[in-house]
Design goal:
The protein is of the alpha/beta class. Helices cover 56% and strands 6% of the residues. The protein is built from 27 helices and 13 strands. The strands form 4 sheets. Strands 1, 2, 3, 4, 6, 8 and 10 form a 7-stranded mixed beta sheet that branches. Helix 20 packs across helix 27. The protein is globular, with a radius of gyration of 28 Å.
């Protein structure tokens, strides 16, 4: 049996499993402080995903990577030193550790998905099941979207990207260690691993500013965290660390805990990550592990308290089950669960994880490793994995098995056709340059491609094009559409978190302003964007790359917008500011589809600004509060300028009596989870026409 300790190493005959998602390695040590560290990693991840505290809880994944690299490398190194290492045995242990609980989770998720998901969502689930079973889901989710993008919270297998990263790493790592153990290469072991660590960190720091989705999901920008754990496990490094005085080791352990706490509570979704920011939790985890190399430390004793050790022991099952439980709960309820409901889901996760650890993990990982049966274990593991690959492929190839319930294809095809047409528009810029004038003129036809009005903003400005096209025709004016997805009309700022979509915003907005100021005929400018995202913490604005507080970011936003308005008004232009469009639940179209497929009332997918239980996509802020926040900010921008600016409020038209509509009769007002459909946009014609008439009269008066 395993001998417990308070952070110190003990010789045992059957050591406990000690990794986050690592196999049940046999070795000669057990450290309860590492189990405690695993608890410190998994709890913030779970609560972050549940929206319960821990704004930087996602860094727990990085802690897991460091632990995994340390423990697995330490075991392999011990076996290499005693000439007992076998690649097949390594993969047998990996399979026995990873596959049983994972496949039970896959099976359970598949049965629930068959019962509750409409065809399009089951088709997406099938793709993710296939990718997760083949351990390349990180590549799939990289192609799909960013981690914090809308829709991520309704992907039941999203969390498997971390397992894919680890498995891709461990496809090569044991062989590389074996090669480096050769006498001719032995002296290059530490330099080689140090190079891998520094090179991966440099790539991650580069990608986080140029390809942030790749930086988050892909192995090359994550391998350095696993390599950091591996580096401190090398005997030549480990022996040196073990000689640290206990006072120094205890100080290091406390420093490591403080570093983790700072990342968990100080980071949030606007933090550029991983990159250099990931150093803090990764080094913090490494320092804690280092502190325990020579025996117990103060931090080690703190991490070795029984509740943390117990949580650490079941941490793999906690991680496996928490995300599907949270996601399927929301899918079954067909709404975002309340705080109490999410708390209940976390409690349920602990119960399910304990059962998974007790009855699935432990039986498979215990017992003697039979080297002669390793090939059989590997073949069996691959065969089991292939079963779920086939199931996922069937879901995908059958288009989500639409015969399982009512036909929702007609509704989805209509909505998707409009959405795809909107996204593919040549007038919604993809690069830093402005769209060509040809084809991006609204309103009255013109042969000379001249225009007197400009619509400028992000995709929430572009959604107004159908309404402005009709208004322009009636008033006999031409409007140029100047829009770029994700880029509000804010000069001289960058948006955090960094994403490919927003990288070229500064250049685009500079070009847009230049085009307006150099065209004397362009006398009216309509500015529209999703203003709430710059006010509620969804984005953090920066001018120098430094991450600002939410308050500082809001102040910067208002200051920069005031500067832009001043420039436009001083140049003799009239400005119309269009306020926020009401934002429905983040899965509106899927919510309606699920309701129709399951025979529920689709109108329950609507939102009511007077009810705090119905919330926006990424915030617990009720719609009425969002409206108030945006309206106050728009007022603050305009108040010092006095004249030349109007504000029009879509809420007043789309939320009569405080009740926001998603349907008008049988017509849907939205084409996705936030953009108005052509029909919805045209409901704003009256207000836009009134504002344009006032602006044109003012221009003519000048």
């Amino acid at each position: 049996m395993t001998t417990r300790s308070t952070g110190a190493k003990r010789v045992t005959d059957q050591p406990r499993e000690m990794t986050s998602s690592s196999e049940p390695e046999r070795g000669s040590f057990y450290r309860s402080d590492i189990d405690g560290l695993r608890a410190i990693a998994v709890l913030p991840v779970m609560l972050f995903h549940a929206g319960l505290f821990f704004p930087g809880g996602f860094v727990g994944v990085d802690v897991f990577f460091v632990i995994s690299g340390y423990l697995i490398t330490k075991i392999i190194e011990g076996e290499l030193a005693s000439h007992r290492f076998s690649v097949l045995v390594f993969y047998q242990r990996r399979i026995r550790r990873i596959f049983p609980a994972l496949f039970v989770m896959f099976a359970t998720s598949t049965l629930i998905a068959l019962r509750v998901l409409p065809p399009m969502e089951l088709e997406r689930f099938g793709k993710s099941l296939f990718a997760s079973s083949c351990f390349y889901s990180n590549l799939l989710f990289y192609r799909w979207s960013g981690y914090f993008a809308p829709g991520a919270e309704f992907t039941p297998l999203l969390h498997t990207w971390t397992l894919s990263v680890e498995e891709q790493y461990y496809m090569c790592w044991p062989i590389l260690l074996w090669l480096l153990s050769a006498p001719a290469a032995f002296k290059w072991r530490v330099p080689a691993l140090l190079s891998l660590f520094l090179g991966g960190l440099a790539l991650s720091a580069h990608w986080v500013n140029t390809a942030p989705n790749a930086a988050f999901y892909l192995l090359p920008s994550r391998a350095w965290e696993l390599s950091l754990g591996a580096l401190i496990s090398f005997p030549e490094v480990s022996r040196m660390l073990a000689r640290l005085p206990r006072v120094a080791a205890s100080a290091f352990s406390i420093i490591g805990i403080i570093m983790l706490a700072f990342a968990i509570f100080g980071y949030d979704k606007t933090t550029p990550f991983p990159g250099v920011a990931a150093l803090l939790p990764s080094i913090g985890a490494g320092v804690i592990i280092v502190a325990g190399e020579g025996g117990p430390s103060i931090g080690g004793r703190l991490l070795s308290i029984r509740p943390l050790v117990w949580t650490g022991l079941i941490s793999y099952s906690l991680y496996l089950w928490h995300w599907p439980i949270l996601v399927f709960s929301a899918l079954i309820l067909n709404r975002k669960p309340s705080i109490l409901e999410r708390g209940g889901m976390i409690a349920l996760t602990f119960l399910v994880a304990w059962a998974s650890w007790k009855f699935i993990e432990s039986p498979f990982r215990s017992g003697r490793i039979d080297k002669s049966r390793s090939r059989l274990w590997v073949m069996g593991g691959l065969a089991s994995s292939s079963i779920f690959c086939v199931v996922g492929l069937c879901f995908f190839l059958s288009s989500g098995m639409p015969w399982r319930g009512p036909n929702v294809d007609g509704f989805l095809k209509q909505v998707n056709a409009e959405y795809q047409s909107f996204q593919a528009s040549d007038c919604l810029a993809r690069g830093a340059s402005l769209p060509s004038i040809q084809g991006c003129l609204l309103g009255a036809p013109t042969l000379e491609f001249q225009y007197g009005l400009v619509l400028w903003g992000d995709s929430y400005a572009a959604q107004l094009a159908p309404a402005l096209n009709e208004v322009g025709r009636r008033l006999g004016v031409t409007i140029r559409e100047t829009a770029k997805a994700g880029c509000g009309p804010i000069l001289g700022v960058r948006f955090l978190p960094v994403a490919e979509m927003w990288l070229e915003c500064p250049q685009f907005n500079d070009a847009a302003l230049h085009a307006i100021l150099t065209n004397p005929k362009a006398r009216v400018v309509i500015l529209a964007a999703r203003w709430d995202s710059y006010l509620d913490g969804t984005f953090s604005l920066t001018t120098d790359g430094r991450r600002h507080s939410a308050r500082e970011s809001r102040e910067l936003f208002i200051r920069k917008m005031r500067e832009l308005l001043t420039v436009l008004v001083d140049s003799g232009r009239q400005v119309i500011l269009v306020g926020n469009v009401p934002l429905p639940p983040s899965d509106l179209i899927d919510c309606i589809t699920r309701a129709t497929f399951r025979g529920l009332d689709a109108k329950r997918c609507a939102m009511n600004s007077s009810r705090s239980s119905l919330e926006t996509a990424f915030s617990d802020r009720p719609l009425a509060e969002t409206e108030s926040l945006v309206n106050q900010a728009l007022s603050d921008m305009v108040s010092p300028i006095q004249s030349g600016i109007q504000i029009t409020y879509p809420y007043e038209r789309l939320c009569p009596g405080g009740v926001c509509m998603i349907f008008s009769g049988s017509q849907l007002l939205y084409m996705d989870n936030s953009h108005l459909s052509n029909f919805g946009a045209r409901l704003l014609e009256t207000d836009l026409e009134k504002s344009l008439k006032i602006a044109l009269l003012a221009v003519d008066g000048d």
